[in-house]
Structure prediction request, 172 residues.
Amino acid sequence: MKKKIVVYIAASLDGYIARENGEIDWLQSVEGEGDNGYEDFYETCDAVVMGKATYDHVLKLTPEFPYLDKKCYVFSRSAQGKDQYVEFVNESVASFLNNLDQDAKKIWLVGGAEILADFLKAESVDEFIISVIPVLLGGGIPLFKQGIPEMDLKLTDMKQYGQIAQLYYKRG
Prediction:
């Protein structure tokens, strides 16, 4: 079975995943329902992938690393080897996916924008689950960076959690 890479992320209505300084405090300002489907999604994942900036931000935000029960990979240009939570990746997306454990069938691409752009350039993203937060930030770190390849997507589902709209897309 082919590995499936899924982007599961929240973005402001105007397409930003964080403020310019990386803060995501605005996510807390919106009323959702329960965990907005997070636990159900998380349970289906075999591994978690993120960039180093996202990893550093997660470590600052949470008292306990939230992905202890999953194999976790962090793409980094400087960090190498492993730490207590993750394995650092210093190779291309294609090489990483070729060398990835065969048990990892569904991989959650947590973020951020840099690593997402790398996976999109490698044409390795299969699905998107985007929670649209009804906030206009007017600037910040965009979900999709300039220079990514064109990709046709098919809307497969939509869910509403309070004021949050969750959109499900698959590659066309």
